[in-house]
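Anyone opening a protein record will find just a pair of labelled lines. With that in mind, the following record should read easily:
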Amino acid sequence: SKGITPNPGSGPSLKTQEHGFLRVTGTATGSNGGIARSCIYFDTDPGYRDTARMVAEAGVTLLETGDKKSGGVFTPGAVIREEMTEKLLKGGTSFVVE
């Protein structure tokens, strides 16, 4: 069938997923010339494996911590920022700031 989403079973092979990874590097230059660099690295396939892991971890984290915040309306990232970062790091993601 033709549509906007891939047909079931048409995604990457298990072998491709096992060798996949994602590295995102950012560089910023401050107004006084200082330079900061950051890198986040996911050691597995970002499109299938890590997306599923992050969605599951975010859901569990929202359940565990969502009612501990007080005041206004929050985005999920504002509610679970620290807790989610800890879970990502424990799950194999690395994050470096220089």
User: Anything to note?
Assistant: Residues 49 and 80 are 21 Å apart (CA to CA). The two ends are 48 Å apart (CA to CA).
